[in-house]
Amino acid sequence: MNSGRSARHTGYRAALAFLDSLVNYEKLAKPREEFKLDNIRRLLELAGNPQTRLKNVILVAGTKGKGSVCYMLDAALRGCGLRTGLFVSPHVLDVRERIQLNGKPISQSAFARQVERLRRFVQVPALNRQSSIVNRESPVSYFELTAAMAFDLFARRKLDYAIVEVGLGGRLDATNLSEPQVSVITRIGLDHVKVLGGTLRKIAREKAGIMRRGKSVILGIQEPQALAELASCARTVRANLIRAESSVRVYDETPTQTGVAFQASGELGSGRFVLPLLGRHQVENCRTVLTVLGLLAKSDPRIKMGGIRKGLRHVSIPARCQVVRGRPLTIADSCHNPDSGRALARVIADYVKRRVILVYGSLGGKLVSKTVRPLAPWVETAVLVKPDSPRAMALPELKRIFTGLGISHVTADSVPEALSLARQSSIVTHHSPLPIVVAGSFYLAGEALRVLRRGT
């Protein structure tokens, strides 16, 4: 390694170490109990409020599909020749996935520079209670710093569009300090109930915090309770509510070998779309995307049907029913809530069409029984494992749930062991290997992908 490359690598390692020194609510054993925007707001002020200089922000919240919608929007806009920034969370394999420019994670050197630009504001101690300096006693979090890094980089690059995924909820999420041109709320379901509330109405109220007065908000398909609450919130803030299911018609859905094809018609006209993504649920997500693009095209003639179709044909989304290997067929999915469980079950029914070996691990506080129940008829046996997270659900609790669902299961002490047991079960018990499905958490999917890439 030459000296320049070594220095860059050292700077990147230092940046990661600083980031890891911050409180990371994604990994704490207990969920965050209090949400305030004071520290991230102060940090952004010290950085010159880059979020106010962003052009054409598309802010995306929801329980199911928000990440997929963000990746599809990014791919479609790039297909039209536009410059894009994408901020998503959590990452699957590499933290740089969170901040992308024109469809690619930023370089290690760019990541290190962004940390260096902002870390001095995070480290300065508070002078007094009235000071605008960030308070070390209530520090900026891991997620908040990465969001600020994205805002700062996107503002300086003068992008055509910035697609920003909300981390948790909406109203009190750091991303909500941006000023969206259009807000998007995908399907709302029961998740993070201890933080957001135990009813669809309460969760919808938190998500509705990303609506803006006089701006449009695009809604994916919603349950009646969630829809009623979102409509009420839109009236209160005087946002223009647009329902994707009323704006874009989709039909002639056809599973392909590697994804799904369908016909759609709306503001952009009519056309046939091919998504290299497994699952009919991605058609629902794409309908939301086409509704957003149809709205934006009214004021941006660069957004055209041909470019959108071209971009979507090449969209790639990590850990969303991702085919990792062909023999035995191995799929990694971030499935971690009841809606995701139903979607994954449909993927198995449409594409796999046989029983599977399930490698499953979950974070604590998740609705595991409701998530796994749709999968139960397709599971030959399950290998239960704890993801590498302090928030991981204990194996005895997982065993109790799987026993209650009547699913045969064994346990493993690590993800490599779990995958090894799954391969043994796949091959030994049948003439042709049974497919393997890894599900339950982004953290588990990421660990599994790393193991599988190493070939172990």
Structure in a nutshell:
This protein is α/β, with parallel strands linked by helices. Helix content is 41%, strand content 18%.
C-alpha Rg (nearest Å): 22 Å
Mean pLDDT across the residues is 90
The CATH class name of the largest domain reads: Alpha Beta
Question: Given the helix and strand composition, which structural class is it?
Answer: alpha/beta
The largest pleated sheet is described as: 8 strands, mixed
Strand order, largest beta sheet: 4-3-2-5-1-6-7-8
Distance between the termini: 27 Å
Morphology: globular
Question: Which regions contain 5 or more consecutive residues with pLDDT less than 50?
Answer: 124-137
Any idea how many domains?
Answer: 2
Helix content: 40-55%
Q: Tally of extended strands?
A: 17
Strand content: 15-25%
CATH homologous superfamily title of the largest domain: Mur-like, catalytic domain
CATH structural fold name of the largest domain: UDP-N-acetylmuramoyl-L-alanine:D-glutamate ligase
Written description of the protein model:
By secondary structure, this protein is of the alpha/beta class. The chain folds into 2 domains: 3-312, 3-Layer(aba) Sandwich (UDP-N-acetylmuramoyl-L-alanine:D-glutamate ligase); 322-454, Protein-Tyrosine Phosphatase, Chain A, CATH 3.90.190. Helix content is 41%, strand content 18%. The strands form 3 sheets. Strands 4-3-2-5-1-6-7-8 form an 8-stranded mixed beta sheet, with helices on both faces. Strands 12-13-17-14-15-16 form a 6-stranded mixed beta sheet, with helices on both faces. It has a 3-stranded antiparallel beta sheet with strand order 9-10-11. Strand 7, helix 8 (224-237) and strand 8 form a beta-alpha-beta unit. It is globular, with a radius of gyration of 22 Å. Residues 124-137 have low confidence and may be disordered.
